């Protein structure tokens, strides 16, 4: 049974590699860092997949590992390189011409994850709720709030 889970984990990793890369990249916005995160995630999956009790949760579990590895990377990077004196507060108009992924960085981590999984990975709300261990209503509310915040950032200022 445990050998079967390892083989299935490897198959899923290979099949969805690009999806994991896009997910990591949407967090770190750097090609090499995203590749490192996917590689680290794959290592964790292979190392720990024998602990997983139900093979049916394997895909969800792997996505959660990639998300957590991305968030851990950002936290580690933030601790190493940012002091309060160096923080630059962006002007409202600075978002309008930047990369759309920059807009996502203005969202809370869970809200950003929901938007990414819904619109970049085209997941259903039920799947997102399962991976984030939330109920569907919470996912819908967070998605609505995140989209509203993004809309405000994108709207031209009326003076």
Automatic annotation (TrEMBL):
Domain RNA polymerase sigma-70 region, chain residue ranges per copy: 16-79
RNA polymerase sigma factor 70 region 4 type domain boundaries: 102-150
Domain of life: Bacteria
GO MF annotation list: DNA binding; sigma factor activity
InterPro entries per UniProt: RNA_pol_sigma-70-like (IPR039425), RNA_pol_sigma-70_dom (IPR014284), RNA_pol_sigma70_r2 (IPR007627), RNA_pol_sigma70_r4_t2 (IPR013249), RNA_pol_sigma_r2 (IPR013325), RNA_pol_sigma_r3/r4-like (IPR013324), WH-like_DNA-bd_sf (IPR036388)
UniProt keyword list: Sigma factor, Transcription, Transcription regulation
Name the UniProt record assigns to this protein: RNA polymerase sigma24 factor
Species of provenance: Lacrimispora celerecrescens
């Amino acid at each position: 049974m445990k050998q079967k889970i390892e083989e299935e984990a490897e198959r899923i990793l290979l099949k969805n590699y690009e999806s994991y890369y896009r997910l990591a990249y949407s967090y770190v916005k750097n090609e090499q860092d995203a590749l490192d995160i996917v590689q680290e995630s794959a290592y964790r999956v292979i190392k720990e997949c024998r602990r997983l009790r139900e093979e049916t949760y394997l895909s969800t579990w792997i996505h959660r590992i990639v998300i957590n590895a991305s968030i851990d990377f950002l936290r580690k990077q933030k601790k190493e390189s940012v002091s309060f004196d160096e923080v630059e507060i962006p002007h409202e108009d600075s978002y309008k011409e930047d990369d759309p992924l920059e807009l996502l960085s203005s969202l809370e981590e869970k809200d950003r994850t929901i938007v990414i999984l819904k619109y970049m990975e085209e997941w259903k709300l039920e799947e997102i709720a399962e991976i984030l261990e939330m109920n569907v209503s919470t996912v819908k509310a967070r998605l609505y709030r995140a989209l509203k915040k993004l809309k405000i950032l994108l709207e031209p200022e009326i003076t």
